[in-house]
């Protein structure tokens, strides 16, 4: 059997369309790779039959001379936060174990309609709350990357850690992710792949298990900027079932790709120069400036004065929304029920939620409940929403000076699993560069830039104006072409 | 502001999450660590700033006022709605007795 697992989205789509190989061959190749990589724990359930059925339909459509979709013949991993009809959907939580939706999320529907198939449901941090993929009820996800000369299990990042691990290890050419405060970009950076969070509202949230609704956005994770552009086109689009969905046409991002940045201004925010950032990260940031200058862009200094306050504001707003969203898990309508002997309704709620939610989820529900409670709402929640408005205003002012912002994606490279568990705050700080763009609803992308001396990937982040995914992708492409990042993890699994 | 064990117990009860003594004890310093850290938001001058309500300006749409505008989310889906219920009975969600 030929091995197709080094191919990305574009190569598979084009190869299937030209008849160089069949979609079925590709699906079989990835199904086998997935089965061979169980030790990564990237998937919660695998669905080889779904991938094969989708591939056979594409092959039949091609034979019949029908027009093929944007993702025709590409088998992908689906983050287990997207509801998939008849296939267990858990958000990596015990409270949803066994839940088989009677409906399909809009984003996954769009992907199947574009000819993609599903390899399985990808592991994640429980309810997307985490930055290391250590809060899943179904176990930690292993990164395929290891430090040079060490066998220590490394974090694939989070919350989309199953996605980053699967794409980096070549058991999936691409995967869906979701990003509330960095959950696409941080794992992409840790795993040496690309990932883009589009403008808030581009991708429908319908059928995506809700964490913090004013921040949640879906996006693609893949190994090249081109592959992200193709997949984002297939995922995005207006959906009347999501009240915050953007009523705009989906641009042709793939066709619009250009690494020529002549006339573009790239902003460098002085506030992103933070204590505790690795030397290697600062070095790659400098290198990124050089690459973009080489692509024709002008580098300009900008200021985003409220950057420091973005993360604490996020850790009020996101838990507040989560505490409200997660009130639906009550042991009545779906998922787990824990009914102690002789218990009444209220006891059943409390017992079910105690048994079903993990520690980090409980912590965030409690914080959210507290900051929304009578007497504290103004001091915490309202203040955070005002600071959020100021963070967004900083970006609006910056767009008078520049077209796109270049920043590190994370303050450090990946860390060993279990090494940051002592204090929840140290984990939160990993998203310090990712959260501001989330609070402002802006498109933002991570692209691989370099390896550390230890052989771990580092990412660079590009943040764009609202609706300007194209500007973000183009700057990402310019970096990709110059970084020449071809490193891949050595297979140990 | 910081929380003590009694406050955490009250929040847990509001959030309908059963917590034993040991878990409450463990949560107190964890929550206080987070609350101390978010306290820095108080430094920010927010005079005249409206709290953000929509990150991307967007009008709230109304759908057409017709029955089953979207058949998937319209009526007639009782069995689908109940399909994942842990205790569906006679076409309803089953819950422990509420009224004595």
What does this structure look like?
The complex is a heterodimer of chains A (493) and B (100). Chain A has 493 residues and is α/β, with parallel strands linked by helices. Chain A has one domain (1-493): Amidase signature (AS) enzymes (Alpha-Beta Complex). Helix content of chain A is 38%, strand content 13%. Chain A is built from 16 helices and eleven strands. Chain A is globular and about 65 Å long. The two termini of chain A are 20 Å apart. Chain B is mainly α. Helices cover 33% and strands 4% of the residues of chain B. In chain B, a hairpin with a 2-residue loop joins strand 1 and strand 2. The two termini of chain B are 42 Å apart. The relative contact order of chain B is 0.07. The mean pLDDT of chain B is 92. At the A-B interface, helix 10, helix 11, helix 12 and helix 13 of A face helix 1 and helix 2 of B.
The number of helices of chain A is: 16
Strand content of chain B: under 5%
Q: Could you spell the SSE succession of chain A in H and E letters?
A: HHEHEHEHEHEEHHEHEHHHHEHHEEH
Low-confidence stretches of chain A at least 5 residues in length (pLDDT < 50)? none
The CATH architecture of chain A is Alpha-Beta Complex
Biggest β-sheet description of chain B: 2 strands, antiparallel
Shape of chain B: flat
- Helix and strand content put the structural class of chain A at alpha/beta
User: How many domains comprise the coordinates of chain A?
Assistant: 1
> What is the radius of gyration of chain B?
23 Å
Number of strands of chain A: 11
Quick one: which chains have the greatest interface?
Answer: A-B, 75 and 55 residues
The assigned structural class of chain B equals mainly alpha
Order of helices and strands of chain B: HHHEE
User: What strand order characterises the main sheet of chain A?
Assistant: 4-6-5-10-11-9-7-8
| Uncertain stretches of chain B | none
Mean pLDDT of chain B: 92
Q: Within the CATH hierarchy, at the fold level, what is the topology of chain A?
A: Amidase signature (AS) enzymes
